[in-house]
# Entry
Amino acid sequence: MQDWLTMTAADLGRGIEAGEIGPVALTRCYLDAIDAHPLTDRIYTQVTRDRALAEAEAAEQRAGLGLRRSLLDGVPVSWKDLFDSAGTATESGSDLLQGRVPDQDAAVLRNATLMGTVCLGKTHMSELAFSGLGFNPVKQTPPCVNDQGAAPGGSSSGAAASVAFGLAAAGIGSDTGGSVRIPSAWNDLVGLKTTSGRISLEGVVPLCLKFDTIGPLARSVEDAGLLLGVLEGTAGPDLRNPAALKGRRFADLQNVVQDDLDSKIASAYREALERLKQAGALIVPLEVPELEEAMGLSPVLYTTEAYGLWKDVIEAAPQLMYAEILERFRTGAQFSGPDYVAAWAKLEQCRMAWDQAVAGFDAVLSPASPNLPPNLDRLQSDHDYYVQSNLLALRNTRVGNLMGLCALSLPTGTPSCGLQVLGQPDCEEALLRTGAAIEAALA
# Structure
């Protein structure tokens, strides 16, 4: 049974399909691991034991009758603490929402439950999802699997930790500027950022509605595809036979994303590209000058909307917030309505330039994060280090959000060094097939 804790969600589902794994025994295995783990309180905000066992029992009955609803029917999954779940506190990592208990599930949790996944509980996150580091002194800071003295990546920090430490078969998170991909990269997981608007945000505590997206953190690209399916109430793409890389054209994005790379990340990225070339892929250097302008729009686009959504709640009790997060929200007060409208108009122009520049490529590649997980003690004591680490961590992933793309982070084989694969808007299926081929080449 201990092997179950490290298997992919897809393999667990196939085991259930074959009658080799029982959903109840599988769920109890995960619940026992959660109970026994010394860091559980830093990973899970709530463990929904009764719900998990009830859902597992129903999945076991369906399996026995040959009525399984999806390949992941009976597979245990964790949920970030911003997805509403009926009768369970959903506080988005903030004391501002202390005691907030919704009376119904978020739309995506309803979909996933109808497709048979088992809800293990809710995971810790950055406060109100407004940090790429996963450091949350107000609630809890989950551990990084490669360095427990370092930040885990955020804001879906607990989601990543739950999978990396064998306490969930997969985790569901959100990504507004990198919040699925950064913790995936730093914890050697696969993270999928979906296109804005593809997956319903009903019942999800917001940060920036124009950028908020939902996506899985998983052990394989196949798992990510299956989880995309259950979030939407579908089977998801079939990725068991990935396409060959021979003849595929990838852009090696040069500007912005390769500035100030940690030497270990730079080396891992070069090695990954070399392995793709050996598999027959064509790698072409690419610069998109408009990217600099787009990145410069980030402060007005993100902080204005975030502060606009949260201003009244924040200013009613600002003392409840971690000072760094509070300061970042309040930056949004510096910009006017005309500033915000003008920034969006400029961003749309940058998106058109991006689309033209990348039209001839199967995907665009970059390091997922330019920096390694930063030291937790220093984050707490050094303001400049915190701000610089947070902005740097979010820089490369933010390209996908600003350009309105879907994106993957894949492990390179070097700890905490992820490879980002940027796709076209609303082309998750094509991105996942490409990602599965890249995953095979990097294995």
About this structure: The two ends are 25 Å apart (CA to CA). The chain has a mean pLDDT of 97.
